Structures are given as structure tokens and as C-alpha cells.
Known about the structure:
40% of the residues lie in helices and 18% in strands. The chain is of the alpha/beta class.
Amino acid sequence: MIEENIAAVRKNINDSMAKRPDSLKDHVLLVGVTKNHDIYAMREAIDTGITHVGENRVQEAKEKHETLDRDVVWHLIGHLQTNKAKQAVKLFDMIHSIDSIHLAEAVNSAAAGIDKVQDVLVQVNLAREESKTGVDIDELDELLYRVDELDNLRLRGLMLIAPNYEDVEDCRPLFRKMREIFEKVKEMPLKTANIEYLSMGMTHDYKIAIEEGANIVRVGTAIFGQRQY
Length: 229
Ligand SMILES: *Cc1c(COP(=O)(O)O)cnc(C)c1O
């Protein structure tokens, strides 16, 4: 089932890429979101072509890391608490959820402690949802400049979690706005950043996100089925 699901998602990704303007026809990276799915499901996905996995909790990722016995690129997509930064830099190739200077500094010093330069994305709370993490758009530039200054962080782009609107088309303006912000960030006079990734889109909205310019999508349910809590 997982194999067929991955094939279906990849087909949708290609169809959505075909719908976007020529200037956006670059690669789209599929991150398989494995949170709350066991390592058997993970192995099956990896053995049928998933090369990047996303987890939202440090502890769960750590346990899986120890037992998975597969090579894969690990993404932290959930909120990170500063007291977990040390573990996070050991486990994750990319951290999508930097949303404050305080957290950026904690991750930077944790990375410095293991001589690592940690790839990070800055998460933006574009819809200004109370319940959501992510930096407010008014504070984005300041945070980006600060992340850029930190020696053990390498800024790679931006991340968005769109609100769970009943009509998924309502996400489109947000994705479009995010793409505009992304293009502006690419023009900022940053020193060490290598801005390449725009991470947006999950099972219910990844097709629209890609049409609007996402180049990382984080897809769980469409690959692995419903999560059991
Ligand atoms: C869980 C999660 C996803 C995947 O959600 P699905 O709806 O299962 O595709 C993507 N991004 C983040 C940040 C998540 O927490």
C-alpha cells in the first residue's frame, strides 16, 4: 500500500509542477512524514524510494534513529524546545522550525558543541494564527539576519504550515504570498545563507502549495494512512 501511495503522491507532484509558471519548474523534494508511524512502515517507505523523512518530536526520532538501520535524511518539522536543541542537532539534517532568536541561538550553540553546521529553515506564521508557532512576518527580517550571523547555522529557506481551512483553495493566497516573501529573502544581503528551500504543503494542500512554488512538501497521511493516537 505504501508503495502505491508514494507513486500516487509523486504523480500528483509532477502534475502540480506542470501547472506552475516556467520560472518555478525546479525540483520538488518529497519529505515522508513518519511521525506516529512505526519503523516497519518507515523501512517500507525507504525501500520503495523515500529518501527524506520528517518527524515532529525529538524523542520519537531518537528512538527510531536507533533502530531504523536505513540511510535517510532526517527533517525536524515540529516545534523545538530550546532544552531539546542538543539532541536535535545530533539527529536532524534539517530543522524546519526556527522561529525565534532565542531558539536560533540555542540550536547554534548546540551545533557548535558537536562541530556541526546545522541546516535550518525559518518558520513563518503568515496567517497569524494564535495557536501556531512561527515568527511573525514583521519580525522575519530581523530573525533572518540574526540566523545568518550565527556561525553554526546555515539558513536554507522558509517553512509554512497553512491553516486547516475547510476549503483548501483558501490556502492559495497564503502560499502565493509566501513565495513572494521567499523571492525577497533570496535578494537579501545575507552572508552565509544559501536560500534554496520553500517548505510548504501537507496531505490536504500540497498540490496547491506546489502550484504556488513550494519545493519541499511534507506528506504523511497520503503515504502512510491515518495516524493512530
Ligand atoms: C504532521 C505534519 C505534516 C504531515 O501532515 P499530513 O497531513 O499527515 O500530510 C506536515 N508538516 C508538519 C509540520 C506536520 O506536523
